[in-house]
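name: query_chain
kind: protein
chains: 1
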Amino acid sequence: MKSFEQKLFPYLLLMPTLLIFGLFLFYPALNGLWISFTKWDGINPQTFIGLKNYIKLAGDKKFLESFLNTILYTCFSVPAIFVSALGLALLLTGKVKGSNFYRAVFYWPTMISTIIVGLIWRFLLGEDFGVINYLLTVMGRSPVKWLTNPKAAFGVVVFVTTWSMAGYYMVMFIAGIKSISITYYEAADIDGAGFWQQFRYITLPLLKPTSLLVLVLSTVTVIKSYPLIYALTQGGPAGATRFMVQMIQETGFEKNQMGYASAMTIVLFVILALLTVIQFRLNRGGGQDID
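structure:
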């Protein structure tokens, strides 16, 4: 039988971490939940109003528009990031000369501040002063409204997001691919399996834990994106790229409606939690299909 001191010792070791999480994560989360039930401008005393903020959200057209934009942005960006990262990983784990150099090149965008990424692409795609439109004009073509046409701007945001994040998740996929035993591929070669058959029946099933990790992390990161989007389009044109995080920031810090902004934050948290649970369910917790 373990003594009381032996049972208590692991919890004492965990105590510093629990204190840090409690102070900087759990307490702010619970406090934000409380604020969502109040009317508060960030300065004057809070006034408890119950569910009025949430009821107001249900009829707020601007919030619903930003909610739909966020869902569409996530549905387009996450698959694009996943496919790009996996494709790069497959390419760079093959017999490619200078693969280490290319890995560094593709990883490089993830090391740049997202604000800088947004400003760089804004400079490249600007309608009147953009480098790409200037080159199109030199070639005798008409400039493209990359950032002033709603559909084009949405596509640009998805593309730039993918460009800036794919390298990070590429590294995860490379690690996952390299952890797969070579004996599987040797047996497949003996049986005459081609690249696509090996990818479908060996690589993809054995990458399931890595795939789940990439899907969960990329979904959370995409939904929380704000600096890159704001630097690139500032939520325009006509709100086509205004997502929930920007809506929360504008409501809380520009309109001083902290209670209403907190309610939006709780809704965003619930969405993230639901998407994470759904991904775990669909992927059976990330378990591999074959041993």
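note: The beta strands are 38-39, 47-48.
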